[in-house]
Specification:
A hairpin with a 2-residue loop joins strand 1 and strand 2 (16-22). This protein has a single domain, classed as Cyclophilin-like (Cyclophilin, Beta Barrel). The chain is mostly beta strands. The strands form 2 sheets. The protein has an 8-stranded antiparallel β-barrel with strand order 1-2-7-5-6-4-3-10. It starts with 7 loop residues before the first strand and ends with a strand. It has helices spanning 28-39, 138-145; strands spanning 8-13, 16-22, 46-52, 56-63, 90-93, 106-109, 130-136, 149-152, 155-159, 164-171.
Length: 172
Amino acid sequence: MPDSTNPIARIATSMGEIVLELDAANAPATVANFIDYANDGFFEGTVFHRVIDGFMIQGGGLTADLRDKANKKAPIKNEAANGLKNERGTVAMARTGVVDSATSQFFINVNDNSFLNHTAPTTQGFGYAVFGKVTEGLDTVDAIRQVQTGNRGMHQDVPLEAITIQKVTIED
């Protein structure tokens, strides 16, 4: 059951809706960041640009032509040491090799990905910050993870047909 004190994010995609319960208690900065992007309408027109069945689906930063969407906010502090685990159905922040580099991109784990969990306060062991979980629409996540993918330019695992994020709505 969802915790009634946590914000809910409704992600309308071209393949269906995904509903997330955001864990504001354990990932306050990450949840605030996600909500800011959603409320600004930033996610509208971005795509799930990286889809790996058995691993995750990633989106929230690139447009259908695989360009970075403009107007990203400054990177946030990585909250991966919050005790939340990268398990099937959880949502986490994507980042570069720099620990505190997450901006708008997020991914939904389609498998238990314990190798992404925080294990140590080092560059290698820091992990990826989980900040919520799918409460409805796991069937949509599963449909997305099973689409055909290929390479486009420098990008790998790109869906052959764009999967667009049409809107992200936050409910308190």
